[in-house]
Amino acid sequence: MAEHHLDQRPGFIRRLWDGFWSPSGVLSLGFLAIAGFVGGIMFWGGFHWGLEETNTEEFCISCHTMAKNFDEYTETIHYNNRSGVRATCPDCHVPKEWQHKVKAKIMASKDLYHEIMGTISTDETYEDRRLHMAAAVWTKMKKTDSRECRNCHDFEFMDFPVQENRAAMEHQRAIDNDMTCIDCHQGIAHILPAGFLDEYRHVVEGMEGSVAVNESSLLDLDGMLEATRAFLGRGDAQ
Asked: Whose CA is closest to 189, among 108, 34, 81?
């Protein structure tokens, strides 16, 4: 009978599981619950604080390789304009929605590798990769319907009568043809690389079949860019 009792003894995994969920012999279950709750708040607060600390312009330009990017940005309307309202690096490159923000942070970890390896540490290497880097951002923005742009800009609230005629016409055309901001504004914050028009065409064509792309995105790209240059006064863009 004793042997039969030993055979019924729970296995190691079962005993470990039961022990994990059993109340502590030293600390009360209430204390453990409160400690876990407080610890969770502290962990979440620390995680959120760290996330926001990496979501500032100062953090973005703390890397040597971002100095060239920042210098270009300071010459644009997003940095200096008549209203004094600025769009900083994270405003354009980091989503506001939490789930998309965390994904963007994880994806951006590769930038640390390239910073350490010095992939774009000189003007020459930077220019060599400028088109590749621009195309990566264009692809992301095309896929998300220029999500970060739309955090500030919304066709619904644009006052077309007070816009310059050409700007109003192009915005209305964008609405009518279901276009997105990046279709025209590739060079809004950084100098356009040589061959950008062909590369953007490749970006759009490469997305066909995997992402719904309106045919208007493939039409008259030269006209779109000329309109953008005229609107921004950026006719000297490469």
From this structure: 81
- Is the CA virtual torsion 97, 98, 102, 108 positive or negative? positive
Q: How far is CA 38 from CA 23, 24, 33, 50, 217, in A?
A: 19, 18, 9, 18, 51
Assign 127 to helix, strand or coil.
helix
Taking the C-alpha atoms of residue 67 and residue 59, their distance in angstroms, rounded to an integer, is: 12
* Whole-prediction pTM: 0.71
C-alpha to C-alpha distance for 92 and 70, rounded to whole angstroms: 13
Q: Shortest CA distance to 182 belongs to which of 141, 129, 224?
A: 141
Alpha carbon distance 187, 179 (integer Å): 16
Q: How many CB atoms lie within 10 A of CB 7?
A: 7
227 pLDDT band (50/70/90 cuts)?
low
**Each residue's pLDDT tens digit, 137-195:** 999 999 999 999 999 999 999 999 999 999 999 999 999 998 999 999 988 899 999 89
